[in-house]
Write a structure and sequence with these properties.
The complex is a heterodimer. Chain A has 16 helices and four strands. Chain A is mainly α. Chain B is an all-alpha fold. In chain B, strands 1-2 form a two-stranded antiparallel sheet. The radius of gyration of chain B is 19 Å and the shape is globular. The relative contact order of chain B is 0.21. The chains are: A mainly alpha, B mainly alpha.
Amino acid sequence: MPVPRGAVATPQVVEPPIGPRVRIEPRDGAAGPRDRIAEPHHRFAPPPPGDPPLTAVDATTALPTADASARRRVILASVEAVLVPIAAVAVAVGLFSVFLVALGKSPQTFFELLWRGGFGTAFSWQNTLTRTAPLIFTALAVALPARLGLMIIGGEGALVIGGFAAAVVALPFLGVAPAWVILPVMFVAAALAGATWIGFVGALRHARAVNETISSLLMFYIAVAILNFFVEGALRSPADPNKPSTTPIGSENMIGVIPGLEVHWGLAFGVVLAIAAHVLMTRTTFGFAARVTGGNVRAARAQGLPVGRLMIAACALAGAAAGIAGFFEVAAILGKANASLVAGYGFTGILVSFLARHNPIAIPPVAVLFGGLAAAGGLIQRRMGLPDATVQVLQGLIFLTILLSETVYGRIPFLKPEGRR
Amino acid sequence: MSDALTTVAVAMFAGAVRVSTPFLFVSLGEALTEKSGRINLGLEGTLVFGAMSAYAVSYLSGSPWTGVLAAGLAGSVFGMAHGFFCRLPKVSDIAIGIALMLFGTGLAFFFGKGFIQPTAPRLQAIDFGFLTSDPQLKVALQINPLFFIGLALAVVLWWALANTRFGLIVRMTGDSAATAKAMGVSVDLVRFVATTIGGFLAGVGGAFLSLYYPGSWNEGLSSGQGLMAVALVIFSRWNPLMCVAAALLFGAAGALGPALQSVGISQGYHFFNAAPHILTLAILIASSSSKRSLKGAPGELSITK
């Protein structure tokens, strides 16, 4: 481009031949288009009643106030986005405490054990972070399609198929090829299998308008049937007489741990993937198109966006993420594929994604929270004589309060921007 | 060979009647809910919680029919919760359904832990065995009264939706909330009532699972049957009479695995057990379309919009 880059960024004031002065908004800077697209209602909302009409304002004096007001709104929106989920979780914890008291159990003991089992010691941190890794992937599998308005709840199925594919594809290489060949092959197989699995759900939605929530959950049951069929049949290893499993990939081919953290590399990869997903959704054409589609499908179609292809692509990416969760479960934890793959990470991932409001960057910290909850489950069960489903009850309550908290956004008096009270 | 075929056929007929009942109840409840313009995906959780509460109450009270009633009431509480939550602005009925599905199953497993061991009094079947001398058919003709209640309910619901003031209001609310409002009908109240009744029926469906077939309470009792019933409603085009036919079809598919096992075919039984899921998916693919709107679909329904 012959035009120097700086020229584009400077605010331009043009003098129309007739009529009042018109303000042309700057194309970059704090209140640039990028920020306003992330919060569409700011851009398309009518001007607040307090502001003078746009055309009558001199550009040089109007700009700083517009900037400050926009910044204020962004800050308030961020505060709201953090405060509301925290309050929702607090309400759920309160309700759960009432539930425990009603059953004659001490909430204090429960949360002390939760702390000790999930975050109290180095060992419990290790346990928590090991469970965090698959949750990051399965939550991403919910978050990416959710940005397009698709509600995929069958991530568990893609995890199972991914883990199974990884274990199977490794079989001919065992004892022949080194780990640095086997592991990438397993990784690719798992990601492809997961991508195909959920991509199919997206394709059904596009081509036949089959509801993706229902079809993805049905596919989960089919995935479990496929796993059990092969693991208990043709691919069953004679090495393990107690639990039907595929042939172990062997300790020499397993993924190691992050030095100093003693947690497998899936955690680090999950964080990287979450950041990559954030960049994808906020900084690329694909992400922009996906968010437009999620905001209003008809508008997206009218704009000529390839809605169908976007849906299938987002679903395939989601499936790949869940499949990678399966890969790490096989390559770093189990060493083989068996029924232990069906551990419920896919379903907890739904909750993680909702709590993170489908924001990829918020997923890893939220996943740590639920990883801790899962890690402490056993301790709570043993010490308090509570059923293993106790954690599930708490998760269900949090899920409900989080969904209900959607209704208070934009309605909290002290978080409303000026002029919109 | 033909003997084995007959056995499988009879077992599938018996299964169609036996396995279809929970599908029937859940799908009738869901048909009513969806006709009012909302979808409740939480019926899977309602079904499981209904199964647990029916078994527990039947065990504690000694009366299985009290258990059925308890399951229905528990189910209507879940329905009420869904109906109440979804009237709040910006709260999605699909997401609340998913949350209630997870919460309902969690709560059922929590309270049901103590009831896995004991044996509760079960529902008795009505024996139509006198109609035949064939021993296999005699077994197949033991039919639970809930099946007949379900059939009657389907006819009543079909008639009521088409011919009563209540039915008209439900259908109007489901087709156009704006029209309902203009007519002075409280949209939220209609949907609340429809979801509550839907929850009641799903709870009763769960009672059938734990009190008749398979007839015990455990955590693997329902493998997505509540959700399949939701898909079945779409396939039935929101027509209660079609729900009966679809439920029988799904019952037969569900009976395929056990029927084949009974004649010694166990190869691939995982797939036969997944037959209802595969069938549901196939039916959804075959009966949906992105080109035209589905006949009988309520205009306000989020999944068909």
